[in-house]
Structures are given as C-alpha cells and as structure tokens.
Design goal:
2 domains; 111 residues; alpha+beta; Beta-clip-like; two-stranded antiparallel sheet
Length: 111
C-alpha cells in the first residue's frame, strides 16, 4: 500500500498546461494493469512513475491501485473496494487485512 498523496495544483490539471508527466491522470483499480515505482527523472529528479504490468495497447487505459488506507479513504474508494470484494469473493480475512470492519462499512455508507 502507498502512503503518498498526489496533489496537482489547479493550474497544472490540464495536459495543455502540464506535460512533464501524466501520472496524475491514472485511474484507480484494485486489480490494476500498472504500478507506481520510484523513478529518477532527468528533468524532475526522484518522482513517482508508472510501470505497466502487462502490455498496454493503444486506446487502453492505465490503472493503478491508489493504496488508500481505509481509515482515511474517501467513500468512493471504500464502496469500490466492497464491490470488488463481493465480485471477487474476497473473504473476511482480506477485509480484516484492509481493516474494514462491519461497523466501519455501515458508518462509511452513512456519510
């Protein structure tokens, strides 16, 4: 799991204004096709970069696991994890590893 947060200032959100990297445009998935790595960029120094786990074809999207910690994760992340867990028959052991208790699930759904 990752404990890093990517915070892109509003003026650099558009790729028309910022083209040094497009790593901040990667979407989340619990079974991603790429991972974050540490990379020494000649332009920016040590940065987080994305490395594909499989061949990514033209017009395919890059996905990475954001690795939020459950206690600080946004609601959409917890909901997506619970859906992933249900679809992939994730057992109670995995839910415990992610520290997602029944009470926590109910509290997060109430938010």
């Amino acid at each position: 799991m990752c404990n890093l947060v990517i915070d892109i200032p509003a003026e650099f959100e558009s790729t028309k204004r910022f083209q040094g990297t497009i790593g901040h445009k990667v979407n989340h998935k619990f079974d991603p096709n790429s991972i974050y790595i540490v990379f020494d960029s000649p332009r920016y120094g040590i940065i987080n970069a994305l490395q594909s786990k499989i061949e990514i074809k033209q017009d395919e999207e890059f996905f990475a696991n954001y690795g939020y910690q459950p206690e600080s994760a946004p609601n959409w992340y917890i909901d997506l994890f619970l859906e992933f867990a249900k679809e992939n028959v994730v057992g109670e052991e995995i839910l415990q590893r992610y520290k997602i208790t029944k009470q926590m699930r109910e509290q997060l759904r109430e938010k």
